[in-house]
Design brief:
CATH superfamily of the largest domain: Metalloenzyme, LuxS/M16 peptidase-like
Keywords: Hydrolase, Protease
Largest sheet: 6 strands, mixed
GO molecular function, one term: peptidase activity
CATH topology of the largest domain: Cytochrome Bc1 Complex, Chain A, domain 1
Strand content: 15-25%
Structural class: alpha+beta
CATH class of the largest domain: Alpha Beta
Number of strands: 15
EC number: 3.4.24.-
Enzyme class: hydrolase
InterPro entries: Metalloenz_LuxS/M16, MPP/UQCRC_Complex, Pept_M16_N, Peptidase_M16_C
Radius of gyration: 22 Å
Distance between the termini: 56 Å
Length: 422
Amino acid sequence: MNFIGENLLYRKFDNGLKAYVLPKKNFNKVYAVYSTKYGSIDNEFVVPTTGERLKVPEGIAHFLEHKMFEMPYGNVFDKYAELGTSSNAYTNYTNTTYLFSTTSAFEESMRLLLEFVETPYFTKESVEKEKGIITQELRMYEDDPEWQVMLNLLKALYHRHPVRDDIGGTVESIQNIDVDTLYKCYETFYHPSNMVIFVAGAVDADKVFDIIEERENKRGKLSQGEIKRIYPEEPDTVNKPRIDVKLSVSRPLFLMGFKDNDVGYDGIELLQKEIITNILLEIIFGKSSLAYEKLYEEGLIDDRFSFGYEGQKGYGFCTIGGETKDPEKLKDMLVTSIDEAKEGGLKEEDFERVRKKYLGDYIQGFNSLEFIANSFVSYYHRNVNIFDYPEVLKRITFEEAERRLREFFDFDRMAVSTVYPK
């Protein structure tokens, strides 16, 4: 039991796989995820079984996610459709996650999830076909202004770190993917020791563990140590102060970002930094802030204006922006708002108000199985337990927030990305 009265059950299997179950009897559905700590930034690593150092093409984690839904008997999505179960997957910078949601066919859906995620099936023909499909997807994203404004911001902030690369890779890089490399990546990152299962909803935990154990015992895999991942040395500076492009948009899109150099750790410390940074962004730019009011009144932002912080062990950055009629004026006013916060200091009552809001949002989140499951795995891969969030939120001091404000919002580490109409 924990702060919000949820009962999380846990089992570790002999091959290193960990499984967590959160029974929620007042729900009529089940949401399950099977996730590997393997994302788009993991392009260089040491193969644990052979000691071979391998550099693979950009976009291979995403490519592999697509391929996993193909089995010798056909497409897994069709099987899930027959069960009346909805299924999906996603790849981000640091993990790949497979999921399903069902109201009636949990056991069959769970067995299918284990079966297809644990059965790599790649043929030369299907890999070549997939290259065509992903090439189309990448070309589509090249014309997507919201994707490009974000991608260009990361290219401006980062010199070499692979977070600057498109999660899907490039049209050129995916041509270099072959069956042999896919199997090497699969064997390295889809090892049970590098994966986690999380199930929430109307389930019996023992039943879930029994289904997993039955399957895992047959695999004959041994537990494995941590994978050695290799990332390039990233300078403290930003790569470029700005990147501007022209695309088919009716109004400009603008994004400002700050690069975080306080990196190299995960766990509770990372969670604390993430919460503090998000609280600061909310105080300065949230809907009840003076800055938001001014920007809105001047017609520089609309309801789609947003901000957020992404923090991982090896990198961190924040984004602030949206659609605007005047990117330069918006930039100047955002900079002024940060300057004023740094010079005039923060108000302790604002800090407490936002802290309460975040606690409320967290509690509210537990009404959604999707929120619980996806947040759980996102935090899990950063060595954070989602149930530690309220305690860490409560412990943060006003002085820590003031210190972070001065250190993080350094204009020498700021970059902007703009998409202008053609």
